[in-house]
Amino acid sequence: TSELLRNICMRNLVRKYCRGLTAERKVQLQQKVVTSAVFSGKKEGYLESLSQPFLETRLKENDLNPKVLQLIRGENIKYVTPVIKYDRNGFKARERLLVLTQSSAYVVEMAKIKQKIEYSTLKGISTSNLSDGIVVIHVPEDNKQKGDVILQCEHVFETVTKLCILANKQSLVKVVKGSLRFRVGSGKEGTMVFTMGPEPQVFKDKTGQLTVV
């Protein structure tokens, strides 16, 4: 009898908790479930991220340049965050914005759209198992795309979760160890190496590879 009552009490507590959830809290929990499926036991810093609620967006729509808003008019903007984009050849770091809409991801420089990636064409999303914020968005080989997009995000768990939910491609997220290959363009590939060190840094090494410490 005690066991039966304990089970009934637990079910009642869960029911009361679920019915008392706000719509905002429910979205938070749903996103955290996706984050757990993608990163739990795979990437450093995941456990520390559990207590940090995801923001709806890091920048508001009115923070974007009016010219950018005009170019992506008609698309519902869902998430905007500052990122560092690394050039595919010389790996020069450049400040950019990552704008996620209902149907596409945009890499934005001030009033210019540098790259547009439709979710339907997205080939994959890669990040390392270490505590860096590197994210590589893999795109198809066609004339519309310059190559894969290499980004560094301060809120990597939040950004990747938002991206894979909007694109509905959770299964395409890969957490890699050691290194990963990315497409530079025109059939060429580059290599990114992940390693441990006394302080975080990203640089082009003597062999021409992008090294993330």
Automatic annotation (TrEMBL):
Database matches in PROSITE patterns: TH1 (PS51757)
InterPro entries cross-referenced by the UniProt entry: Myosin_TH1
Transmembrane portions of the chain: none
Pfam families assigned: Myosin_TH1
GO cellular component annotations of the record: myosin complex
Domain TH1: 43-213
A GO MF term: cytoskeletal motor activity
Identification of the protein by name: MYO1H protein
Natural source organism: Certhia familiaris
Lineage: Eukaryota, Metazoa, Chordata, Craniata, Vertebrata
Gene: Myo1h
